[in-house]
Write a structure and sequence with these properties.
alpha+beta; Umud Fragment, subunit A; 4-stranded antiparallel sheet; 2 helices
């Protein structure tokens, strides 16, 4: 009788571990994911090695807005297979231009309190096509982003960064 009870206990532990692994995989693949930031392209907003939580499910039903920080598969022109994290700057149908160290949306300068430094390059003017976004890093002069490889197709976006959870002294929502 004792051997049968031990066998059931082992089976229960295996079932619990398998269910936990499946739930973890489903959550990470389709709902939320923790990400480590590998580059300085989003400085000062997000530091190297910060950890952020990315919403991979609910953002699909919400309208993405200017200022949202998104994770995406870069277009082939970007020359990378690794996911990128950048800020949405331009929305579908808008005219975007970078000149005089400022970003202009429909000929109006964009107020950007989150920049590490203003851009030292020129871009555009360009109309953002439907189902695409113009994304840039907050560290404008050290970011491989839309000013280099063009518009980001909406279908490439895999999630929206919600908040930083590490380090604890900077825990909180990411600034828009």
């Amino acid at each position: 009788m004792e051997k049968n009870s031990f066998g059931r206990s082992i089976l229960e532990v295996v079932e619990i571990v398998v269910i936990a692994l499946i739930l973890s995989w489903v959550l990470r693949s389709f709902v939320v994911e923790a990400r480590v930031i590998p580059t300085g392209s989003m400085l000062n907003t997000i530091q190297l090695q910060d950890r952020v939580v990315v919403d991979k499910l609910f953002f699909k039903w919400a309208e993405l807005k200017r200022g949202d920080i998104v994770v995406f598969h870069p277009p082939e022109r970007a020359g990378s297979k690794d996911d990128f994290i950048k800020r949405i700057i331009g929305l579908p149908g808008e005219k975007i231009e970078v000149k005089n160290q400022k970003v202009y949306i429909n000929d109006q300068p964009l107020v950007e309190h989150y920049l590490l430094e203003p851009p030292r390059y020129h871009y555009g003017p360009q109309i953002i096509p439907q189902n695409a976004y113009f994304v840039m890093g907050d560290n404008r002069n050290n970011s491989a982003d839309s000013h280099e490889w063009g518009m980001l197709p909406a279908g490439n976006i895999t999630g929206r960064a919600l908040f930083r959870y590490w380090p604890l002294d900077r825990f909180g929502l990411l600034a828009r």
